[in-house]
Amino acid sequence: MKVLVSDEISKIGVKKLEEAGFEVDVKIKKTEEEICEFIGEYKAMIVRSQTKVTRNIIESAKKLKIIGRAGVGIDNVDVDAATENGILVVNAPEGNTFAATEHTFAMMLALARNIPLANELLKQGLWERKKFTGVELRNKTLGVVGLGKIGTEVSKRARAFEMKVLAYDPFVSEERSKQMGVELTDFNTVIENADFLTIHLPLSSETYHLVGYEQIGRMKKGVKIVNVARGGIIDEEALYKALKEGHVGGAAIDVFENEPETKSPLFELESVVVTPHLGASTEEAQINVAVDVVEEVIRALNGELVKNAVNIPSIKPELQHSLSPYLDLVEKLGKFVSQLVNGHINRIEIKYNGEIAKYDVTSLTNTLLKGLLRPILKDAVNYVNAPYIAKDRGISVSESKSVELENYANLITVTVNTDQTSKTISGTLFSDNDARIVRIDELTIDAAPKGHMLIVPHIDKPKIVGPVGTLIGEHNINIAGMQLGRKMIGGKAVMFLAVDSPVSDEILREIVEMDGIIDVKYVHL
Predict the structure, then answer these.
(1) Catalytic residue status for 209
(2) What is the pTM of this model?
């Protein structure tokens, strides 16, 4: 079988493929058209970040079984097209953990002690000791946004530097944070109290410009900001302005919104330390990600189960017919409920009722967990590692089954408990495998989980539905559909609005201030 390597990876990875009996072709720096011409020969394709695996390439790959990304992010792979064509996509989510961790501290220390500029001036013959008085990390507060593998390792090392660590991550339990010696709190508290702030999140629609003008304005004067995660999470224009004005005392940036970046205004400032996306650029990390993804490719081509699949869960062949229709439903339930809860998740309960309870539903549970964790963790979570990630973050997961029916032939219910609240939703499949949410907490509803949605718990009384609809219309947002659920007149009710476009935080604030509104959540699937 032939394997195509279209970006440079460690020779150790290539050698492992050859030792496993595969014919390996290394063809780098090829255009999309060139790849389309020869991709039809290959069973597997391995890329890093340079090659864009487009729909055209995928649809030209008649023999392709697997695409391996030697790294964490899969932004350069059209995963939807791969899934439609039955092609497995795998990544290497842990291979660069320690490289990125150490680079974070290298950047933080360089920033604290003015190392780059002092180095440059001394080499020019200038001995400027007084100009480069720095600050110590000891006794400073480090704000960590995102406690995944890298954020956790950064926090561990920060404690060795005798720093106080404040962290924000809704998918880490209070118990787990205490074990780590980290104070878990909300996002605003972290950014308002940090002397140093470091970001460890994937880039997504939710995290794009997460740190902008408003957030920087909340920070301490003189705060120092580090980003070795993804460009675009920090609004570079807002950061530049805050640095020029002196509100931000310095920044250490390894990643940029547009890369390669060679002309950023940030480069003009002495208070800024920059590197060209070197977070994973160590000899060890390059070997690790290459070996990890190569081992996945070998397993897949040998018909074995893989552990880092990002698009197709593994279901035993004899269960395919019975369980496959529910995969989309449970992933949507996970994504949906994760956007409804506040606080730090500590427990997840999943219950299967009806015929489906007769089967081994491990694949469904894992898929639901992947959907629930994915809004924050993105490509670092997959169908196999989701339960392990939950456990590592101190989140307990319980699964129960009952063949007893609850008004539906099959019903899947997920309850998420946090340090602030508890939220339960139930879903099922209607005819033609149409996914529906049929219960939110104790309230019955019939809603399709897709697109842009507003969930509005309220008191059941007149002049609620109309004013909400009017307000949304005034902001030029079209309502595609509406469902209401209630138990009794005058009691608690829930309004489910399907809308045609995103809903801003400003609109949500206006809605929640209306008389009779208990809460409002915007959910996007």
Answers:
(1) no
(2) 0.79
